[in-house]
Amino acid sequence: MDFKGEVLRKSLHLTGLLVPVSYFLFGKEITLIFISLAIIIFFIIEPYRVSNETTKKIIEGIKPLLREDTLDIVSKSIESIDRKIKEIAREEEKIWIGAHIYFAVSALLVVLFFPMNIAMGVLSAATVGDAFAAVVGIKWGRHKFKNGKSLEGSLAFFLSALIIYLFFLPWHQALLGSLIGAIVELYNLPPNDNFSNPLVMAFLIYLFTVI
Question: Which terminus of the chain has fewer CB atoms gathered within 10 Å of its CB, N or C?
């Protein structure tokens, strides 16, 4: 994926910040309902996202409702949106569930099982850190690891996550969370870093606070 595509992809991923914002404004229970509804919607539309026939079926379905000139404009717009979505999808996401579902499930577990400050910090840091790591790694990454990621990208995750964490946690917990996040993001733990990163950071930060 080129730099422009990665920026667009990470811009969409930043909508994950809606979870900590919801937690702050509306509390735990409303946020859990919000995430649960999002997960249900994601699973309903996911088969249509990965299907190559969806766009054709939508256009065929609206044909009787529109005049020919209007239909042409609408059809081109739908095809353009579909093309853009496919351009920013990872190869595995073209045949399997997308990163948004992994993040949503992870966010649900983090909000459900961890204290508010840890949950808000982790989800904010994971979202922002992942975006900075990808963009910096592609644009300025010169020192590559074997898996294709870069030292520059990892440092970008660490520094951006650290800044975020300092709003929610004591400095030593913020430092630990940022370091853990950078390592997990680098090694891309299965099944997906959007799932594993928030959970691992939340668990180890919480463990550190109770020891």
Answer: C
